[in-house]
From TrEMBL, chain A:
The keyword S-adenosyl-L-methionine does not apply. GO terms for cellular component: plasma membrane. One of its GO terms (molecular function) is ATP hydrolysis activity. Its main location: membrane. This is Unannotated protein.
From TrEMBL, chain B:
Its main location: membrane. It is a multi-pass membrane protein. Residues 98-291 form the ABC transmembrane type-1 domain. This is Unannotated protein. Keywords: Amino-acid transport, Cell membrane, Membrane, Transmembrane, Transmembrane helix, Transport. The chain crosses the membrane at residues 49-74, 94-122, 143-165, 171-189, 270-288. It comes from freshwater metagenome. Gene3D superfamilies: MetI-like. One of its GO terms (biological process) is amino acid transport. InterPro entries: AA_ABC_transptr_permease_3TM, ArtM/GltK/GlnP/TcyL/YhdX-like, MetI-like, MetI-like_sf. Residues 1-27 are annotated as: Disordered.
């Protein structure tokens, strides 16, 4: 197997008095997707925010392509350019059109010329079937379209790693599918990804590895089949049972 | 009442000039008989509403005017406050004074915008190096938002010259302007700060995770959205600022208020004050209408974004 794009060892994170992540160690090889599942409050979002250096950590090491990004001498802005991230909601900048949203970072961060950035943005939009929305403002797009634009925007800096935090949880089921298709396409193209999700079906489709987070620890991990179909731990079984029951309502 | 109003809203939406082209995708659609009947009914109702509004306005307002003019005190009142011939005579002096108010407003607006933004940025930043400035800014805003502006004008206008410091000006115009700027910077800094804080934290996270640094995030993502939200309150402050420049007249600055005061004390007639009021209104009423419209637009925009 190829080298790890992301490698985390013994990560620990607390907020004030609450220990949120403890002893987290994972490796994410190139062109693979690791999916985190777990109850609300188990620490999925916090983990992704730590990887993107949006949250300071208490202890442990995070490496991107073998380089320690938790080093105090490292400029976090430069690290974030190599990592794309999409949140649950409020991703797009409402005062900018779709195109302006996408070209902002290439122009300001990478120093691309406007023409270059627009060319690249248009080819990305075309690839994902959203070219006709280029000049719309975000409030004119459906929720699913907004999330797809957010994904496209995070691709504009050619990131090494994509972090997707419950990007479908504010969408209704029909819109979920179009977003999931976009993620599957990216996976097929070889993007390396870390995801947090409540959609077990989605986890099954894209994950190479599934990690079950319980109270800030990785309780069980393995292939989607191992974790989602034949979980060993009682708590994993209980969680999946709950998710299934909720899904049937 | 409420129901009526909202029905009219939707009616105007459907009766618009371009309703044909707007709903006619591809040029084959003809409104049904039912829809045509509905439109006719709506048009009829709108016409009836307009007639009722016009008639009731005519009788109520006209009635009030007749009562006022025929009342026994009307003669004395109009001689004291509305002696138009005298008003026109003193108008040039008042207008000349008003130029001072406009100048003060213009310079103050520029300075207040600059200092207010700076203080808002200092107060919202989390940089440890700025901690002492953050404390100072907080104290400054609390103090100057909490005392009457007239006191600040008196303190600066009479207090500073009393210090007799070499090189400091005794020019009442500059001292008055300084007092206005000090006070309004505190108001405006607070308005801008509340705008910055009202932007959802995910917007900042989204910008930072694209690799934008703090300054770029502020400049391209946070401030443009914040300014959009605080434009209506800032315009309100501008209207208040224009009026409040009249307060520097207490220092002896010959602005419109002072010019009116001089004219009035000479003749024991209050028409000059009324003239000055009219001059202020000529600027402030259009600005107030404009503010209202901006506010309505910004609310519509926020509704569209599902934020309101
Ligand atoms: N900024 C913060 N300050 C204090 N506590 C926080 C903060 N952010 C998260 N937490 C706490 O950390 C814990 C983990 O939160 P996190 O958002 O990572 O959960 P999650 O697994 O993403 O949940 P969900 O599925 O609901 O999104 C929660 O108990 C939460 O209260
Ligand atoms: Mg979360």
């Amino acid at each position: 197997m190829s080298n790890s794009v992301l490698e985390i060892s013994k990560l620990r994170k607390s907020f004030d008095t609450e220990l949120v992540l403890e002893d987290i160690s994972i490796k994410v090889p190139e062109h693979t997707a690791t999916v985190f599942i777990g109850a609300s409050g188990s620490g999925k979002s916090t983990l992704l925010r730590c990887i993107n250096l949006l949250e300071p950590i208490d202890d442990g090491v995070i490496k991107l392509d073998g380089e320690e990004i938790t080093d105090v001498e490292i400029n976090p802005d430069e690290v974030r350019r190599k990592i794309g991230m999409v949140f649950q909601a409020f991703n797009l900048f409402p005062h900018m059109s779709v195109l302006e949203n996408i070209i902002l970072a290439p122009m300001r961060v990478k120093g691309s010329s406007r023409d270059q950035a627009v060319d690249q943005a248009e080819s990305l939009l075309k690839r994902f079937g959203l070219l006709d929305k280029a000049h719309q403002y975000p409030d004119r797009l459906s929720g699913g379209q907004q999330q797809r634009v957010a994904i496209i925007r995070s691709l504009a800096l050619n990131p090494r790693l994509l972090l997707l935090d419950e990007i479908t949880s504010s969408l209704d089921p029909v819109l979920v599918n179009e977003v999931l298709k976009t993620v599957r396409d990216l996976k097929a193209e070889g993007m390396t990804m870390v995801l947090a999700t409540h959609e077990m079906g989605f986890a099954k489709q894209v994950a190479d590895e599934v990690c079950f987070l319980k109270d800030g620890r990785i309780l069980e991990w393995g292939t989607p089949d191992q974790i989602l179909n034949k979980p060993q731990e009682r708590q994993t079984q209980e969680f999946l049972k709950q998710v299934n029951e909720a899904g049937r309502l | 009442m409420k129901n009526e109003a909202s029905r009219e809203d939707s009616a105007s939406q459907f009766n618009g000039e371009n309703s044909q082209s707007k709903y006619d995708f591809g040029g084959k659609w003809q409104p049904s008989e039912l829809e045509l009947a509905r439109r006719a009914a709506r048009a009829k109702r709108n016409k009836r509403s307009a007639i009722i509004a016009a008639l009731s306005s005519f009788f109520v307002l006209g009635g009030l005017a007749v009562i006022a003019v025929t009342s026994p005190g009307w003669k004395l009142l109009s001689d004291t406050f509305f002696k138009w011939a005298y008003g026109v005579e003193v108008l040039p002096k008042i207008l000349l004074g008003f130029i001072t108010n406009i100048t003060l407003t213009t310079i103050a607006t520029i300075c207040v915008a600059f200092f207010g933004l700076s203080i808002a940025l200092v107060r919202t930043s989390k940089a440890p190096a700025l901690t002492p400035f953050r404390i100072l800014a907080t104290v400054y805003v609390d103090v100057f938002r909490g005392i009457p502006m007239l006191l600040v004008i008196l303190l600066v206008g009479f207090g500073v010259p009393a210090l007799q410091i070499q090189g400091l000006t005794n020019n009442v115009l500059i001292l008055g302007l300084t007092a206005v700027i000090i006070t309004y910077t505190a108001y405006v800094a607070e308005v801008i700060r509340s705008g910055i804080l009202s932007i959802h934290p995910s917007q900042r996270a989204a910008a930072r995770s694209l690799g934008l640094n703090y300054v770029q995030t502020m400049r391209h993502v946070i401030l443009p959205q914040a300014f959009r939200r605080v434009t209506p309150p800032l315009l309100n402050d501008l209207v208040a600022l224009i009026k409040d420049t009249g307060l520097v007249s207490i220092l002896g600055v010959t602005d419109a208020v002072r010019a009116a005061q001089i004219a009035s004390s000479r003749s024991f007639n209050y028409t000059p004050y009324v003239m000055a009021a009219i001059v202020f209104l000529l600027i402030t009423i259009p600005l107030t209408r404009f503010t209202d419209r901006t506010l309505r637009k910004s609310i519509e925009q926020q509704n569209a974004q599902g934020l309101a």
